[in-house]
Amino acid sequence: MNSDVLIESVSLRDSYAGRVDALNKVKALKLLPDNECVSVEMAAKFYEVSRKTIDSLIFDNRQELESDGLKVLSGDELIFFKEKAIIGKMVRSFTVIPRRAILRVGMLLRDSMVARSLRDHLLDTEAEATRRARTVDPDLIHFKKEAYMLEIAADMLRLPDSGRLKLLGDFNKQHGLNVPIPAYADEPLTRSATSLLQVNGAGISTERFNNLMIHHGLLEILERPSKKSGIKEFKSLTDAGLEYGKNIVSPNSPRETAPHYFPDRFPDLLKKVGLLI
């Protein structure tokens, strides 16, 4: 792409307006003592053109440059620059041009080799970034998508740290990675509902207990695709249910969770669902 397209297109200039880093890539930019702006004379020196050229460009493109911060100072706004002896004490106005506006000047100037170099740099950098994006290894993109979906799945299934570690361990093996991952997480011991119902003498079946849990919003039924039956259902503790246990990765399928419960909280859970008074 010919860099002169920047001279002709406002929208294209707008798309590069934040690339102020490019200024010092083509030439060292000297700033005023405020370390933010330059004067008209400094802008002319940077682009190696006359002051008249910069004045004319500002006149023709004032609205666009003012949108990038160009400003004519007057009154008390001049005190700082007068005290720094940047301007004389009798000066009544002073134009300051911040980096964004200086960058836009370079995108507008025709007869300046520095400005042309700036435009070339902007477009070349963009072209290189586009080329790199197009040459990204598709396997890497797929890997990143899998890792992202793994995180989403762990969040949706409300897995504790131990469950997340298991998923990561399986992910490691699947991709032949050697990333060191702890074999376990320091979490409270949990047990299945079946065993805890027996220990606490609840006198009901696990199926009935699960139905009560669902009724009280502590457990929910989720679904996943299944090659055999089309849809396979499994159970997962809700956010409210996680107060009494955790969702572990099912030993029968890594794509399912199974609710496990904290033994010391189970009596409170039985009261919650109306089985103990």
Number of DSSP E strands: 7
Q: What class would the helix/strand composition place it in?
A: alpha+beta
Shape: elongated
**Biggest sheet overview:** 3 strands, antiparallel
Strand order of the largest sheet: 1-3-2
Rg, please?
34 Å
Low-confidence stretches: none
Overall helicity = 40-55%
Q: Tell me the number of structural domains.
A: 3
Mean pLDDT level: 87
Number of helices: 14
Order of helices and strands: HHHEHHHEHEHHHHHHEEEEH
| Beta strand % | 5-15%
Distance N terminus to C terminus?
Answer: 78 Å
Produce a short descriptive summary.
It contains 14 helices and 7 strands. The protein has 277 residues and is of the alpha+beta class.
How would you describe this structure to a colleague?
This protein is α+β, with helices and mostly antiparallel strands. It has three domains: 5-134, no CATH class; 138-174, no CATH class; 193-272, no CATH class. It has helices spanning 5-8, 10-15, 23-26, 40-47, 51-60, 62-66, 79-83, 99-108, 113-134, 138-156, 161-174, 193-199, 206-215, 266-272, and strands at 37-38, 71-74, 93-98, 219-226, 230-237, 245-249, 257-261. A three-stranded antiparallel beta sheet has the order 1-3-2. Strands 4-5 form a two-stranded antiparallel ribbon. Helix 4 (40-47) packs across helix 5. The chain is elongated, with a radius of gyration of 34 Å.
